[in-house]
Please model this.
Amino acid sequence: LHTRSVLLPTSRTRLAMATLPPRSGAFSEGYNFAYAWDKKVPLTGQQNAAISALSHTLADRPFPAHLQDADNDSAFEEAGAVDAALVNTHQFYKWFVQLESAMKSEIDEKYRLYESTLQEHVNTCDGILRQVDDTLNLFEQVQSLHSRAAIRIQTLHDACDQLVD
Model:
């Protein structure tokens, strides 16, 4: 999309090239102020001629060679931008939907990567928890075997004491 440059109609602001903003209260107020200022302090004919000459010179001035659009085009090509001109609003909306989709998929990819990293950590923690549970079960089995062995040893000691007496 291209912006439209306009010369503001007041003589003080003829050098100002601006993109026409939407008509709002602030815009109208600023425009009216500039118009009133020009009415209070008019420019001389020589000043008006100089402003007019500068306006025409600036309007016809070529784009500087060291700031060609090639640099911008290569950056857009690297970013995957489409090189087609947008002719109507349908094409603009189609392009905008594609742009939003690309941005969304880029953001989604970051979150998918983060989710997979978190899932790996959860799986690692689950594995450690299973090992701890297995170790506790083995410890309980060893403790149970130890208490049975202690009971048998005590029984054997008691039987030996009875035989000795």
Summary: The CA atoms of residues 74 and 80 lie 10 Å apart. Strands lie at 5-7, 17-19.
